[in-house]
Design a protein that fits this description.
By secondary structure, this protein is mainly β. It is 8% helix and 36% strand. The protein has one domain. It is built from one helix and eight strands. The radius of gyration is 18 Å and the shape is elongated. 15% of the residues are buried. The model has no long low-confidence stretch (mean pLDDT 81).
Length: 101
């Protein structure tokens, strides 16, 4: 019992792990990039990637991102991309915006 005479008990919380944005061109970044576009934070997997999400602006400033599926846009988020390459499935990494197939 607490000092106020009320019994307290611990309640387990489910905390979702934040996706990791690797930006190495080898590991799948699809979930982490979508998480950023949806306005959430991610864990940066290395110093090879630089990404920020602040006040409705997502900045991808450095990295080689591997995608295994399409990303959904978010009209509430402005996306800025520089010094990045995107690898679609197992194809070669191509610098943005040259994502032709």
């Amino acid at each position: 019992m607490s000092a106020a005479g009320v019994a307290l008990s611990a309640v387990p919380l489910k905390v979702a792990a934040m996706p990791v944005l690797y930006g190495d061109g080898l590991r799948d970044d699809t979930v982490a990039l979508q998480h950023l576009i949806d306005g959430h934070q991610v864990v940066l997997g290395s110093d090879r990637v630089l990404a920020k999400s602040e006040a409705g602006v997502v900045r991808l400033l450095k990295g080689k991102f591997r995608l295994t599926s399409a990303l959904r846009g978010n009209p509430r988020v402005h996306l800025q991309i520089a010094n990045c390459a995107f690898k679609l499935n197992s194809g070669p990494a191509q610098p943005y915006p040259h994502l032709g197939g």
